[in-house]
Amino acid sequence: MTTATVDSKALLAVPAAPKATAASTMVEVARAHGVSPIRQLRESVALSFGRSRMKLHEYYAGGLYDPALTARDKREFVGERGSYLLNSGLASKRLTSLRGAMRHKVLHTAMMEALGFRTTETQAVVSDEQRFGAVETCTDAASLRDFLMHRARFPLFGKPQSYSGSFGSALIESREGDDLFLGNGKRIKIDAFCEEIVAEYASGYVLQSALRQHPVLEEAAGRAVGTIRIVTVRRAAMPEVLYTLWKIPAPTAMSDNFWQDGSMIAPIDPETGIVGQVRAGSGVKGRNIDTHPATGATLTGLQLPDWQAALTLAREGHAVMSEFGVIGWDIAVTPEGPAIIEANANPHHMLYQLAHRRGIWNADFAHVWGEVRARSKAMLRRRIQQELGRVKKRA
Predict the structure, then answer these.
(1) In what residue span(s) does the Alpha-L-glutamate ligase-related protein ATP-grasp domain sit (predicted)?
(2) Which tens digit of pLDDT belongs to each residue from 315-363?
(3) How far apart are CA 369 and CA 372, in angstroms?
């Protein structure tokens, strides 16, 4: 381990804002697909309005210049803003009273664990403004160092309390003396790590026991956990699974977010748990792959273990928070079974579009969104009527 590269920074940096689409990209698309730059711009402008709300870089990342897609097909795709508007329209904020609890990583994990769901274990939290009962709270760099030196059980996975997308995350495999060894093969001095955490995330940073993947997944995709994204919707009393996909980390990554170079993504058949065509990259750099670049294992066609248990975990979890119309679950499949990593009230449907090569407003899903929205409105009306009835009785 002493040969690991020494680094002064441990946390995964926030990616830079997307650069303006280069003219060379337009030319490359025109040559490869026979779509003129004028047509590309006309299509991208049209998709920036309506329910798509797609930015120019999202048009290219999604490969929507492909002439094999009809105009109707393209209108089914959304950008980040369009995805947010879809999700937020599925349930009124007046209905979703648990939104803050879901966003709070420590409280949500504790709540789900108390209800009997398998999830991650929080060992400590860094915060200079909050306390968490029996969970150890580190208020400064010195107390964090003391925890890592004397009480931490490695491996640890650290992430900011209030952010998504793996920004600020780190997989700490082990400690030797004053050195922390990271999941990306680098090492950092423990004092430098503590100072970085406090400087950037003093108001909230979570340190959890890092999970191991099921042997089938670790053999196929490596040590870093690649979570299963299961999106559930509530259009009846019991939530149901809408779509599923696998986020596969890059060989040198510490987490599974697709925006990291080398990360892969694949659709999963919700019925069988069999992995579909794996994709690496997006837009003009996107390509199909069948085998993992580091392990050499075949990914496309892989049968994921404990599949039905993972689906049940997501559905039952959504039933706890049935006021939400849609929830995106990140679930790790471990040797002991599936475990909840996180729940997202605003799942980014662009992942579905990249993996499945279909827009989220496709014919199979469009009526589902309408039914979810209608049930949310009915639930809110019922709550309002019940409250008005109680007010009348008190009066």
Answers:
(1) 131-362
(2) 999 999 999 999 999 999 999 999 999 999 999 999 999 999 999 999 9
(3) 5
Residues 127, 104: Cα–Cα separation, whole Å: 13
Domain with CATH 3.30.470.20 in the chain: 99-105+215-369
Sequence-distant (6+) residues with CB within 8 A of 76 are 358, 359, 360, 361, 362
pTM recorded for the entire structure:
0.92
Query: What is the rounded distance in angstroms from the CA atom of residue 202 to the CA atom of residue 204?
Result: 6
Task: Report whether 229 contacts 347 (CB < 8 A).
Answer: yes
Q: Which residues of 7-20 are buried (b: 16+ CB within 10 A; e: fewer)?
A: eeebbbeeeeeeee
CATH 3.30.450.40 describes domain 99-105+215-369: no
DSSP string spanning 317-337?
HHHHTTT-SEEEEEEEEETTE
Cα–Cα dist 14/312, whole Å: 33
Least-confidence region, from 8-22, 117-131, 157-171, 196-210:
8-22
Vertex 376 angle, CA 372 and 380, to 5°: 175
CA trace torsion 105, 112, 124, 185 (10° rounding): -70
* Residue-wise burial string across 260-286, b where 16 or more C-beta atoms lie within 10 A, e elsewhere: beebbbbbbebeebebbbbbbbbbbee
pLDDT at 19 over 80: no
3-state secondary structure of 155: coil
pLDDT in tens, 192-241: 999 999 999 998 999 999 999 999 999 999 988 999 999 999 999 999 99
